[in-house]
Specification:
heterodimer, A: alpha/beta, Rossmann fold, 2 domains, four-stranded parallel sheet, B: mainly alpha, Fumarate Reductase Iron-sulfur Protein, Chain B, domain 2, 56% helix, elongated, Cys_rich_dom (chain A)
């Protein structure tokens, strides 16, 4: 199983744990990730809010490189995934758009390859059965809120791999890893994205709502598949709680980090030591880091 | 909002209304004002007009009122409205277009949002990739709040999560060409 890999800018910076754990887990499960050489930024929200053509051309450049190699593209970042899918769909659906985009990016792009979210690849291509077989340190007793956010599942016409209102891919993955996915109503609520920076008064409130609902549903941690969701929730958790006279100690995880733990990798190798909200006390309390055979009965 | 004479306003603004429809691909009359978009909008509480009201303004030809609204600038682009719309009105796309038209007229209603996005695209054009540290520094300086989130910078640096140096790709010229060709097609400032 081989995919072109498009990490996206965050995975080289604030989301480096995501990159690190994704690569490790993919290798372990026999998924070859061919990093698109000299990949460039997808333009993110800034591009599509400013110029429609720019927002399609920037991702298309990367898709064209993968297409020339004959590979489908696996994308860990939910926002990049959404933008790459938008470019792919626009080019596939319109011959004139194909011509325009090819001219702008200075190379041929026909959208014959497909963009997939890394979560989709793991759950639906590698498959939960295979992942389950490889689990050596099940996440037993760990209650987690699967947080999808917006762009991984919306709009469904573009993303098309899970239900836009009640997606289950990450919940089923958590269960396969031996953990317990809690039922909660904020799994696709927006974290505010870049509003946390530009309009902190709004963004911090949105972040608080997500965290509060996860905690109130009984979750001990939140699982994400988006670097911006992760950064907002992890880096601004203390600020969001304080602004609302509340207190949390809710670690945030990338789904790949949890996969890595269950597959037996050390927290350090997965980047779990670089979070703002330290997840290690929770993992130690649940004895996740120990082999099941040596765990106490009460754990 | 002062009193308006609707028939005259619709007549006067017909061209602009059609332009918004053409650019966004949204047929404004598709919206039957059920309000589902606004009910599920996570940012609606902070908006001057709800998303439903913005469409209503456009339907009535009150385009200028829509252009003056903060709503398109605050839209988080989360796609909840579009996903739930029973008429499949692509509201996020409509918000983009309204906002781009507002910018063309110098109506930048959320300066910080605009500065942030401009700084972001600036790093992409210069380096081929977003540079988070450069982006935040530039954003803070231009938005007149040099110490915003300053307490977050040292831990980010220590954890190796941001770097003072951008990661420049090899084919920066190719990226600059993309920006240039988009501009040459009469697109907005980008």
């Amino acid at each position: 199983m081989k995919y072109a890999y498009y990490p996206g800018c965050s995975l080289e910076a604030t989301a480096k744990e995501y990159n690190q754990s994704a690569k490790l887990v993919a290798r372990h499960l026999g998924v070859e990730l061919w990093e698109i050489p000299d990949w460039s930024c997808c333009g993110a929200t800034a591009a599509h809010n400013n110029n429609h053509l720019l927002s399609l051309a920037l991702p298309a450049r990367n898709l064209a490189i993968a297409e020339a190699e004959g590979l489908d593209v696996a994308v860990p970042c939910a926002a990049c995934f959404n933008r790459l899918r938008a470019a792919e769909t626009a080019v596939r659906e319109s011959e004139s758009m194909r011509a325009t985009i090819s001219e702008i990016i200075g190379r041929d792009y026909r959208a014959t390859n497909k963009t997939r979210a890394l979560l989709d690849v793991m759950v639906n291509e590698v498959g939960l059965e295979k992942i389950k077989e490889q689990v050596v340190k099940p996440l037993a007793g760990l209650k987690l809120a699967a947080y999808y956010g917006c762009l991984l599942v919306r709009p469904p016409k573009l993303t098309a791999f899970d239900d836009p209102e009640d997606p289950m891919a990450m919940d089923r993955l958590i269960d396969a890893l031996g953990g317990e996915a809690v039922s909660w109503s904020y799994k696709t609520e927006c974290c505010g994205g870049s509003l946390a920076t530009a309009r902190g008064d709004i963004g911090v409130r949105m972040i608080y709502q997500v965290l509060r609902h996860a905690r109130d549903a009984g979750a001990e941690g939140v699982v994400t598949a988006c670097p911006l969701c992760f950064l907002n929730l992890d880096m601004r958790e203390a600020q969001a709680a304080a602004a609302h006279g509340d207190q949390f100690q809710l670690p945030i995880f990338y789904f790949t980090e949890l996969m890595g733990l269950a597959l037996g990798y050390a927290p350090k190798d997965l980047g779990l030591t670089t979070h703002f909200v330290n997840p290690l006390p929770l993992l130690e309390a649940k004895e996740i880091l120990r082999h099941p055979a040596t765990r106490r009965e009460t754990a | 909002m002062e009193r308006v004479e609707l028939a005259g306003s619709l007549r006067r603004n017909q061209a602009l209304k059609s332009q918004v429809e053409a650019e966004s691909g949204v047929v404004l009359s598709d919206c039957y004002q059920c309000g589902k978009c606004s009910a599920g909008c996570p940012v609606a509480a902070w908006m001057d007009y709800t998303p439903r009201q913005v469409i209503r303004l456009l339907q009535l030809g009150l385009v200028e009122e829509a252009l003056k609204s903060h709503t398109p600038w605050l839209c988080a682009c989360c796609q909840a409205c579009y996903t739930r719309c029973p008429r499949e009105v692509n509201l996020p796309r409509l918000m983009e277009v309204v906002r781009q038209e507002a910018r063309r007229r110098g109506l930048i209603n959320e300066k910080k949002v605009d500065i942030f996005e401009r700084a972001f695209l600036g790093t992409v054009e210069r380096y081929g990739r977003a540079h988070e540290m450069g982006l935040i520094v530039q954003y803070n300086l231009q938005s007149g709040q040099p110490f915003k989130d300053a307490m977050l910078a040292p831990p980010l640096l220590l954890k190796g999560k941001i770097s003072p140096f951008p990661m420049k790709i090899k084919d920066v010229a190719g990226i600059k060409d993309i920006f240039t060709r988009v501009r040459a097609r009469g697109g907005d400032r980008s």
